[in-house]
Amino acid sequence: MSTTDSASSMSRGTQTTKWATISTICFVYFFVAVVVAHLIRPDLSLTTNFISEYVLGVNGLVMTAALLVFGIGILIFTAGLRQSLVAPTYARIGLVLLVIGGIAMLFVGVFPVEIQTTPEYLTMSGPIHDLAALIFFVSTVAGIVLVSFGFRNDVQWSRHSVSEVILAMIV
Question: Is residue 94 helix, strand or coil?
């Protein structure tokens, strides 16, 4: 291995660590914000209401920010994986699906959910939110599964392949 290859590999590893750190901060922020949103709105339940419903009301900015940061975290996480993963075609498709999921989560945050179901109160925000949420769930789960199968073929990531498939099933 030449000095240039070694320096490039070390730089790529440092960059990947930065991506991982930033995305972890985003994910932690999301989960803390969900807890804070629940404390602000004890009338809603994490078990019977959608997380998106916390956007509605006086302190909805907390959850709106959380959804946006979560989408950004997914995009940053995917960028880090792209740099460090030696990926076969199906894992690259998984990375694309994760990008789609991250962008969809940004739409979920920008377009709030609507609880009113009567036509005179509906706007385009609700259907856009619902479609984006559906795209987020489907593409993110499929992306995690495909990337986790790609982990099996990468020496650096092979030990994480089983845990990633389990994570996808939990999601």
Answer: helix
